[in-house]
Q: What sequence folds into this?
């Protein structure tokens, strides 16, 4: 798995706390590899400029996305993403703005295969020093098992 194209770290946003938002949604009919490649390309183009990092998971017809960055950037991106017709039934699973450290500091927005997501999340949970981060990651793992 290629982890980063770009070194982005919190030093570029020293005053801002890190906002973390996790949601899941249902992919629209016809959304497959080609569409997802376009989404990833768009994200990799836009996200670094807004200090946003994270991961996108697609599997079984569902999206699962972890976004982290300055609160205003994450929330405005989330408004844009929510209105995207390529998915529906967008449900925010957790939103937290007390997290200071990024869990995916070098991931401008990578597509993670469902088969790999458990490993990615467990690794992140292990290296998380903040209990809120651990909680959010464990919630994601629970959602993953329930899906
Ligand atoms: C599941 C999903 C995840 C997305 N994630 C991002 C993202 O992280 N960053 C981003 O800029 N656009 C993302 N998009 C695309 C946006 O909804 C929107 O199409 C895009 O930001 C518009 O960019 P453009 O005007 O340059 O085409 C996502 C779309 C979907 C359906």
A:
């Amino acid at each position: 798995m290629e982890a980063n194209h770009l070194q982005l770290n919190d030093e570029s946003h020293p005053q801002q706390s890190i906002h973390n938002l996790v949601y899941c949604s249902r992919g629209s009919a016809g959304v497959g590899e080609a569409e997802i490649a376009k989404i990833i390309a768009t994200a990799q183009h836009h996200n670094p400029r807004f200090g946003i990092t994270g991961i996108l998971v697609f599997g079984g017809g569902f999206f699962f996305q972890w976004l982290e960055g300055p609160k205003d950037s994450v929330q405005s991106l989330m408004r844009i993403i929510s209105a995207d017709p390529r998915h529906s039934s967008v449900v925010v699973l957790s939103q937290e703005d007390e997290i200071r450290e990024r869990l995916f500091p070098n991931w401008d927005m990578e597509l993670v295969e469902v088969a790999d997501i458990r490993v990615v999340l467990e690794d992140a949970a292990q290296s998380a020093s903040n209990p809120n981060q651990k909680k959010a990651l464990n919630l994601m793992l629970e959602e993953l098992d329930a899906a």
Summary: The mean pLDDT is 82.
